[in-house]
Amino acid sequence: MLDQPIARIENLRVEFQTKDGPVVGVEDVSFSVNPGETVCIVGESGSGKSVSSLSLMRLVEFGGGEIAGGRLLFDRKDGGEIDLVKTDQSLMRTIRGNEIGMIFQEPMTALNPVFTVGRQLTEGLRLHRGMTKQQARDRALELMKQVRIPEPERRLQQYPHELSGGMRQRVVIAMALACEPRLLIADEPTTALDVTIQAEILALMDRLKRETGTAVMFITHDMAVVAQMADRVVVMFRGNKVEEGTVEEIFENPQHDYTKALLAAVPKLGEMRGKPAPEPMRLLGVETHDTGPIMGSDEPLLKVRNLTTRFAVKAGFFRRTVANVHAVEDVSFTLNKGRTLSLVGESGCGKSTAGRSILRLVEPQAGHIELDGVDVMALDTNGLRRAREDMQMVFQDPFASLNPQMQLLDQVAEPLRNYGQTNRQELQDRVAALFDRVELPRSFMRRYPHELSGGQRQRVAIARALALNPKLIVADEAVSALDVSVQAQVLNLMMELQAELGLSYVFISHDMAVVERVSHDVGVMYLGRIVELGPRQAVFEDPQHPYTQALMKAVPIADPRMRKSERELNFKPIPSPIHKVGYVPPPSEYEEISPGHFILTTDSGY
């Protein structure tokens, strides 16, 4: 029967046992997924959206949860309808992967680091489909081509750590699709991906859904992705479903206050048109300090000239250098005081390496870096240590950059102690003031990182970066893993601090809408070079380089009536940045097309 739902969740309740008694993850949720339909489940972290999907796979029990009530009805290919709550784990093993596929959010933890990609892709096929080794390998190659992985034969021999984040996520998607499941659960599958790869993967999932009639349950907090993918939308808040409707109803006529607040917090590409300088967003239910547009000054703070960073590729018994990864190639720019320069591009384009090279966390091969009149490249260890007071970094993953064994008070106080502030009372007052500044309650000073949400952890990382009153902060994908509403609050916080303290930011991101919101100037990077550089208005409203135009085209728009088709997304595969020793790349040459707006004239490979 075609009109029968593939999966029905009825009155699901999930509880987690903790030291303080049971915590309810999902209170009472019901919805269904029909064949060939995409149902998007939206909400912030902690709303219970992932718990619902893990319950359907019966994986929630392995994470300390228990299904305390409700039914999970699943229509099997040939076995009629069964209630997954009552199914024993041996039958669940047959259903998992074979009939219900799942794409997890974090590809590095979903893949096994000690097995090759080929072995992990073929395992499910041999287990569920009884294929021979050769048949499974052929099918794996076909899947790799379907998810557009370049050089698939070579990739099958590689291990997960040898692939970039986007590639790993594609492998995870290929694994989920391997046995052509009836229901595909995608848990934030594109959160950590670039716009172009995200656009391709969304189009790919849409195409596969149409071709195979698979039902898709898509979990995300990105409203633009919802507009691109969903047929129906379920909005979750604190373990409950607060609204459900077709994608048009939700976007054009939201009923619940929470849905309205979610949609209001989405930064939309193009909404800064005509505005010369960034300004904080107005958020529903959140007080913003009206700072007005942040103009910055004309006085240069950071000058980067001909920055080049390469990593050696070693091989053979003597570990000789046989090639170099050209991560950053001849990059130059100037950042003025109190302003934000954003570096955008896909993963592997060298933007993070450029940020780390400026702080000399990675040693550049060549180039000149000057911070407020100090030649950073000429400094010895002691000089560099002193210069680091003026330049700080906020990393992408706050959980990895905070120490899990230290209280937050000590972590934020650590830079102050390192640089000679030792009076305990003064330290505590200073840290309390920093917590106030990033709008965290002072009671959090006694907590540990795992007791905070992602957005709160990122605020702690910002407080720690501010501890020494730096002049420059390099923010490397500082908001890419956060929920829309939390992301909007953290961005507002960064802009308010810029207005108050005159901070300068090098903001590294792949999210074009966020970049448009915060930047004064934008540099678009491709294969280690800046291909277009200029004031935000010039680059966003009149992109000249073909790569910038392709990037803009890939950004999903939070409007279900403006969906992108796969035909529009014809991206060229990215060439390899690895060159043999002795290769001399041409220098970067630019043409100025309007005041301050430059495009690369050297062949960039795009």
Automatic annotation (TrEMBL):
One of its GO terms (cellular component) is plasma membrane. Part of the ABC transporter complex GsiABCD involved in glutathione import. Responsible for energy coupling to the transport system. One of its GO terms (biological process) is transmembrane transport. It is an enzyme of class 7 (translocase). It is found in: Cell inner membrane. It comes from the Bacteria. Residues 7-263, 302-552 form the ABC transporter domain. The keyword ATP-binding applies. Its EC number is 7.4.2.10. GO terms for molecular function: ATP binding; ATP hydrolysis activity. SMART domains: AAA. The lineage of its organism: Bacteria, Pseudomonadati, Pseudomonadota, Alphaproteobacteria, Rhodobacterales. Coiled coil: none annotated. NCBIfam families: PRK10419.1, PRK11308.1. Keywords: ATP-binding, Cell inner membrane, Cell membrane, Hydrolase, Membrane, Nucleotide-binding, Repeat, Translocase, Transport. This is Glutathione import ATP-binding protein GsiA. It catalyses: glutathione(out) + ATP + H2O = glutathione(in) + ADP + phosphate + H(+). It is a peripheral membrane protein. Its main location: membrane. The complex is composed of two ATP-binding proteins (GsiA), two transmembrane proteins (GsiC and GsiD) and a solute-binding protein (GsiB). SUPFAM superfamilies: P-loop containing nucleoside triphosphate hydrolases. Belongs to the ABC transporter superfamily. Glutathione importer (TC 3.A.1.5.11) family.
